Amino acid sequence: xxxxxxxxxxxxxxxxxxxxxxxxxxxxxxxxxxxxxxxxxxxxxxxxxxxxxxxxxxxxxxxxxxxxxxxxxxxxxxxxxxxxxxxxxxxxxxxxxxxxxxxxxxxxxxxxxxxxxxxxxxxxxxxxxxxxxxxxxxxxxxxxxxxxxxxxxxxxxxxxxxxxxxxxxxxxxxxxxxxxxxxxxxxxxxxxxxxxxxxxxxxxxxxxxxxxxxxxxxxxxxxxxxxxxxxxxxxxxxxxxxxxxxxxxxxxxxxxxxxxxxxxxxxxxxxxxxxxxxxxxxxxxxxxxxxxxxxxxxxxxxxxxxxxxxxxxxxxxxxxxxxxxxxxxxxxxxxxxxxxxxxxxxxxxxxxxxxxxxxxxxxx
Amino acid sequence: xxxxxxxxxxxxxxxxxxxxxxxxxxxxxxxxxxxxxxxxxxxxxxxxxxxxxxxxxxxxxxxxxxxxxxxxxxxxxxxxxxxxxxxxxxxxxxxxxxxxxxxxxxxxxxxxxxxxxxxxxxxxxxxxxxxxxxxxxxxxxxxxxxxxxxxxxxxxxxxxxxxxxxxxxxxxxxxxxxxxxxxxxxxxxxxxxxxxxxxxxxxxxxxxxxxxxxxxxxxxxxxxxxxxxxxxxxxxxxxxxxxxxxxxxxxxxxxxxxxxxxxxxxxxxxxxxxxxxxxxxxxxxxxxxxxxxx
Amino acid sequence: xxxxxxxxxxxxxxxxxxxxxxxxxxxxxxxxxxxxxxxxxxxxxxxxxxxxxxxxxxxxxxxxxxxxxxxxxxxxxxxxxxxxxxxxxxxxxxxxxxxxxxxxxxxxxxxxxxxxxxxxxxxxxxxxxxxxxxxxxxxxxxxxxxxxxxxxxxxxxxxxxxxxxxxxxxxxxxxxxxxxxxxxxxxxxxxxxxxxxxxxxxxxxxxxxxxxxxxxxxxxxxxxxxxxxxxxxxxxxxxxxxxxxxxxxxxxxxxxxxxxxxxxxxxxxxxxxxxxxxxxxxxxxxxxxxxxxxxxxxxxxxxxxxxxxxxxxxxxxxxxxxxxxxxxxxxxxxxxxxxxxxxxxxxxxxxxxxxxxxxxxxxxxxxxxxxxxxxxxxxxxxxxxxxxxxxxxxxxxxxxxxxxxxxxxxxxxx
Lengths: 364, 294, 414
Description:
The complex is a heterotrimer of chains A (364), B (294) and C (414). By secondary structure, chain A is mostly helical. Chain A contains 15 helices and four strands. Chain A has a two-stranded antiparallel sheet. A two-stranded antiparallel ribbon of chain A has the order 2-3. In chain A, strand 2 (169-170) and strand 3 form a beta hairpin. In chain A, helix 3 packs across helix 11, helix 3 packs antiparallel against helix 12 and helix 4 (79-97) packs antiparallel against helix 5. In chain C, helix 2 (38-57) crosses helix 12, helix 3 runs parallel beside helix 4 and helix 5 packs parallel to helix 8. Chain C folds into two domains: 2-141 and 291-379, Rossmann fold (3-Layer(aba) Sandwich); 144-285 and 383-411, Response regulator (Rossmann fold, 3-Layer(aba) Sandwich). Chain C has helices spanning 2-20, 38-57, 77-91, 101-114, 143-159, 166-171, 186-189, 192-202, 220-229, 240-252, 269-274, 297-307, 318-339, 345-352, 400-403, 405-408; strands at residues 24-31, 65-72, 95-98, 118-120, 136-138, 176-181, 205-206, 210-211, 233-236, 258-261, 282-284, 381-388, 391-399. Chain C is globular and about 70 Å long. In chain C, the strands form two sheets. In chain C, strands 6, 7, 8, 9, 10, 11, 12 and 13 form an eight-stranded mixed sheet that branches. Chain C has a five-stranded parallel sheet with strand order 2-1-3-4-5, sandwiched between helices. The A-C interface holds A 46-47, 50, 148-149, 157-166, 178, 251-253, 255-258, 301-302, 305-309, 314, 317-318, 320-321, 324-325 and C 10-11, 13-14, 17-18, 21, 33-34, 42, 46, 49, 67, 69-72, 74, 76-78, 81-82, 84-86, 89-90, 102-103, 105-110, 113-114, 126, 183-186, 189-190, 193, 307-308, 310.
């Protein structure tokens, strides 16, 4: 539900479905684009850019989860498995077969999607908690077993694949430092967001939402639920694969530890905190879940490494690990309390704030 | 054959501990519909609390009893602080709260007790192995098995024969009907968490007695999930059988299948079995089949 | 309000202070104090910090203070990568003291491109071939040489002499050999190829590897499988936690084999955790134990007491001494590089490669160090110890270069 300023009316359905409906929104979005593409990379330091990359990666990975949980109602706790398939496919193709990065990335996406469909197959029969368990099994079977024990042993020993600097390039554009990764990340995020937003407002998206709201009712309305569920799994897996293949660029090496069960849970946390069933939510959630721990970590590093503090209180560096544990506990507590006191996520609060300003001063 | 028997018996003995923890898990699910991903951390807390008491010089049985008391209190507190406000919220949000709790508890455990392996010293159970025919079994395992069986019997009879047990069963069956008959649902939920904490605590203590205690005991919390799914999420006998089956499968798989793979079978085999069972029996072996109407 | 002011001022102070100190040498250290190898990593982190303090108190790098950045990475490769980037881009360090095998091997192409000397606590043989990894250095006898030496020692001193094996020996059976390793951990798998090669040379009967996780507490099924094979000798490739669990299970299930433990699984903690089951376990040592007698002992203990008074001395391990060895070697290289006027990546690398029978580590019970531009193996001497009466004691040294002179050169980079 959004309110337009007075004097704005729509003559065509097309206008009604437009993303940016007023000049003001256009201006806002253009400013945002300038900020994201020019101002931020120009003026932020390397450290901030590397954090921005993590945020972008989280957005990319959580997008598929948002699709599955938020739009299709299929809960997944194993999304890291699909990221892993994408990342490993991409890396293997690049390092072993010397396929150019963009093609390897798309292949990674496709493999991630197919892998996701494989573990989505039980969704035809099971649902609810039993489906959660199946996707969890996908996580353990894929990452802990298939990838750790087989895939990552390809090409000599070692669990981590090293990616020599300069191996990743798109045409003449060599992706070598965090700034290049940042540009690639922004392009991918915009692209995926556009695809996602278009999907959910099309026939496919409506079918997904029908399944989410009540799958039996959707079936009686003529929605082929098995097909659409599997399609959702494929698209989510594809997004995941792309995210995994993207993350390879910013790493010196890819190892199964990048895709452990905690990361799957993390992604679900991202969309829950951001807001389920909202593309904005994915972005807000990713910001929250990356910036809070990063801020805590920054604080810890300042406290334990900075000479001023260390000279005054020489015991501080020794407390480093204690601080790290406190950080973990505090973060867990933050998630729990956030969900207790703001169960609709940040995007709901955002919507409220926006409406407050739109309707100010008479909000009734 | 001897190896088979050895693996089988080891599996049953370890499985009995899994069964105990799985029982606690099922209880929470049955009574309040919460899929608890913090179960592993509950076992950790219980185990470390017991270890601390034991190292203060309190006899083991008494330490275990105190652990139960602490578990009871912590369970009720957790329910009141974190889970009660979530009643009626979407299931997924509740699951995520338990994930947050898992982080929280794990951070606390590491903060208080560190990440090193600690052992019960002096050892609670004698370390000389016992021979059952040709099969060698560590005494710890035998005692753990006995303790699990005693506790399983105690818990099951609590459900069958006490007022609170019956009201828990009633709430699990139909919350509305139970409420209308005067069952206090709040107490029942709190009780479910308390019992889960207690069961997990004992399970963790027993595991910790085998070879020592570190953060990896919390992995048990994930292993419990295939166990309960195998049995059917809301079946108490299912949880017990599921726990035993997972223990046996793990050991047999490692004994016989690991030579065909580079490794890792022991950890993932329960999950593979779980997926296969789900394909044929979508509600586990004894779970309730839900009939949905529009 | 006042609190906010204090916070704001202290933040400003931080930033200025980091600008103010320019005459300093920045060194990054990756430590694991919370992860899978924290059982050994925590103590090493303390040792590194204490040793750095000592070298700063005695003049630093020719008068320049060493500024140490110690970060915990929880033994996770992803965290190691981000932390390394932080060292490189944000802290601007001249060299890195690394930790695990997985992360060191994963990072090695990157540090190569960045020309960043990397002295790691992983003694993986794969890091010792300068043709592939020119910027990687280790501060102990590499795992592969160690593993070869240990089983050679066992074969010659125990299998051929010990009355325990007399019956089998007289029957002429081959010793049966099994590895207990975390197959997913590069640290554990690093020496496996070499050890199997050596076992073939010595004529052992090699059984299937048993996968034991670094965190393992229950290793029954693995021990049963080894028992089914009839193992006489078990190689433990993990760290102390899981080694002690495996040794205990082996004793509980009556395996009856001898155990050899890699150097990060063998320290004062093993008898503490393993109890009587750890008696007689053979292991590898890189330097002196904390409780041993060695020339630098008083210094090590003085700094342990001074900087970490909260930790009782009886809880300190050989890892502290290893921390000193690590820092000592890095400082020596940096001093040399600084004298040559090239205190930067390539300069430090060249300085390392001029080490010839450097005796600096003898103070800590280490070996004479020789590094050349073609061979980064620190030494060829393998030091074997055994748990006797609940305490690890050195029982012998074996020089692999002298023993297998024709094969030694070919073992580079295994």
